[in-house]
Amino acid sequence: MLVGAFTLSLNAENEEQRAVPGNPLKGAKKGVDELGRYFDNLFATELPFIGPNTVWEFDISPKFGDVIDDPYIRLPLEATYGFSETLEASLGYTPYLENPFDSDPVHSDGYLSLGFKKRFAELFGEKSNLAVGASVREPLDDIPEQNIRANYLLFRPFVVYSLQLGDTDRWTAYWNVNYDLIGDHIDDTPPPGRVPDSLFSLKQGVIYKIEGEWRCSLELEYQTTRMDGEEDDQWVIRPGVTWFPSEKRREAWFIPGDYSVGVTFGIALDQLNEHRDRSDFRTSVRFRWRFRAK
Fold it and tell me: Is the pLDDT confidence value at 264 over 50?
């Protein structure tokens, strides 16, 4: 729940069954395509869709993109449970492993995360979906990231709305609003200086589901610290594409479960002061492999 990277998940059940009676995904949520796959998020953006009820989903998410730029490799682990067709909760743990390709690798116990998402289907019509949710992130150890908020307790409430465009489900527009509220520092004696500002984010974008194995997206994100009285803003455009190998293709490769591979390109039109030393162009790759069990 909590663009950076490769994401790994394993599916015990076949997500790509045709939408027929008996398919647990059929009718359980919007966002299901003609192959029975669903999209609960778009890279780092929550969408107003959740999985079928009474089903556990387990994600292993090694962020291999860290190998290029960082002395660590993050390994997010997450378990999600669907209490109903409109409510799910998740528990996650993200350790930081040493990067064997870095000259000065570091490691950390990382952080725990807890979250939930509540969906309100067709609240504003049959083509729309609305969801609200929140997540909490608690550091367990010193986090070796450059992110100035990494070592603070973080509470993130969010609201996300989607709208199907046209008579098919191929085009979907969405709007996501979230707010990162800063809590206590991991240390009893935090570093000197001012506590980082809380961060407001508005994301708006469109998803196009190409027939077959591909999905394209375009997102515009605005971030600001103005809610804390500052005047620091950031604008980023993110085009992306995701490939969902078919069941037949996966079987030919002898790789079990369901997975996808995506790439997104972050183009910063303006950056927060804390990001001024970063490149204006960032490429992120995500590999997702999911395990599902009732």
Answer: yes
Q: Based on C-alpha coordinates, what's the Rg of the chain?
A: 19
How would you classify the pairing of strands 214-224 and 87-98? unpaired
Alpha-carbon distances of 135 from 117, 132, 159, 179, 201, rounded to whole Å: 9, 11, 12, 11, 15
Of 124, 201, 195, the C-alpha closest to 157 is 201
Residues 57-72 pLDDT 10s: 888 878 877 888 789 9
- In total, how many domains does the chain have? 1
Q: What is the pTM of this model?
A: 0.81
Answer yes or no: is 3 within a domain.
no
Give the domain range for residue 286: 41-293
Q: CATH number for the domain including 94? A: 2.40.160.40
Residue 26 lies in a domain: no
Q: Is 193 part of a structural domain of the chain?
A: yes
Opening angle at CA 159, ends 158 and 165, nearest 5: 140
Concatenate the DSSP letters of all residues of 202-252 into one string. Answer: EEEEEEEE-SSSEEEEEEEEEEE-GGGT---EEEEEEEEEEE---HHHHHH
Q: Is residue 24 part of a domain?
A: no
